UniProtKB/TrEMBL annotation:
Superkingdom to which the source organism belongs: Bacteria
GO CC, any one term: plasma membrane
Gene3D superfamilies membership: Nucleic acid-binding proteins (2.40.50.140)
Xref: InterPro entries: CcmE, CcmE-like_sf, NA-bd_OB-fold
Gene Ontology annotations of biological process type: cytochrome complex assembly; protein-heme linkage
Entry keywords, A to Z: Cytochrome c-type biogenesis, Heme, Iron, Membrane, Metal-binding, Signal-anchor, Transmembrane, Transmembrane helix
Pfam family, one: CcmE
Binding positions for heme per the UniProt entry: H96, Y100
GO molecular function: heme binding; metal ion binding
Organism: Anaplasma phagocytophilum str. NCH-1
Protein name, UniProt field: CcmE family protein
Length: 116
């Protein structure tokens, strides 16, 4: 059972994580949201940016190869730990933008969907 619990990672929004930072203290978790425009700062082989669920912004740092679709106003999911108010990501995924969403969704719906 212990091995299974090490491979499970929970998903939450920035608002949920900031409200309950203990969620990330024991095991890595996944947090998702839209990358905030103007928040991407590159530092050599690492990057710092913020993601939002339209309620809370969360600072994320990541070291590694960025996904091809990574950029401002793009949905992202990061797996890692929340340490001292910053989410330290060990994995990073970029999600499709709204042009890949079904026509029934508006751009504001896409932002919310991108965070889940």
């Amino acid at each position: 059972m212990f091995e299974l619990s090490k491979s499970i990672s929970f998903f939450c929004t920035p608002t949920e994580l900031v409200a309950d930072p203990i969620k990330s203290s024991r095991y890595p978790i996944r947090v998702g949201g839209m990358i905030v425009k103007g928040s991407i700062v590159r530092h050599g082989d690492s990057v710092t940016f913020s993601i939002t669920d339209l309620g809370t912004e969360l600072e994320v740092t990541y070291r590694g190869v960025l996904p091809p679709m990574f950029g401002e106003d793009v949905g992202a999911i990061a797996k890692g730990r929340f340490v001292d108010g910053v989410f330290i990501a060990e994995e990073l995924l970029a999600k499709h933008d709204e042009k890949y969403m079904p026509k029934k969704y508006s751009s504001s719906d896409a932002a919310v969907i991108g965070s889940s």
